[in-house]
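Hey, resending since the last one bounced:
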Amino acid sequence: MNPFVHIELSTGDLDAARTFYGKLFDWKLLDIQMPGGIYTLIDPGKGPGGGMQLSMMLDAPPMWLTYVEVADVRRAIAKARRLGAKVVADFMDLGPNGSAGIFVDPTGAVLGVWAPPKQPSTAKRVKKAAKKVAKKATSGAKKVAKTAKMTVKRSPK
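The structure tokens again:
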């Protein structure tokens, strides 16, 4: 099942929204600098987190947008499109925060999808760790062999 994971407010007055919602719900708010400007993270203490930002679409009214977690944003957006959705944001790479996309469903409702950052598979992580251990072991063995040669050369005959 795909859970709701993030709820975001896009508004024309970020300062007023921060003041209002911070006081109304006692949310913990944290401003971070993003390429498009300030993004305010919301920590409600319980349930999905969220954020607030200045609206990127000047003609859009202030609105809350909910994001649902998916395994692959591109696939989810493509499937939504095939089912009749109008895609607003096809794919947004959020770097270390994963990726996201936004669409308008056939009824006119807007929904976002978000995928967490890709983690290497367990097999890949184990293989990488094994290589690292083997490299250290080989390095250690070479040092021991080198020390042994030096010891043999120095010892009297």
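Residues 120-157 form one domain.

Sorry for the duplicate.
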